[in-house]
Amino acid sequence: MARTVLIVDDHPGFRACAxxxxxxxxxxxVGEAADGLSGVxxxxxxxxxxxxxxxxxxxxxxxxxxxxxxxxxxxxxIVFVSTHDAGDFGELARRSDALGFLPKxxxxxxxxxxxxxxx
Length: 119
Prior knowledge:
The protein is α/β, with parallel strands linked by helices. The protein is 41% helix and 22% strand.
């Protein structure tokens, strides 16, 4: 059975590339969202195994969206992505209960499987 993923990112080009890459690696992309609040709603409605969540979104930060997903008791694991290095987020990244962080350039099905194996 394919693992399910929701991609939340404000750049349509990144969403399309991420979708292609993850589907080629055997993931089922069950949805996409272009902002944090839409991502929160989609995660609750679609209940993917994993949410790939951009840190920098136009309405709320990825950290805020992740916190809302937890308040809503969304069961999905969360992986933050960004064009920036994980160290740029300091305490916010450490305090979140996300599964992990990946630079956008390193996003792949295998990288997600590796993070899921650590939980």
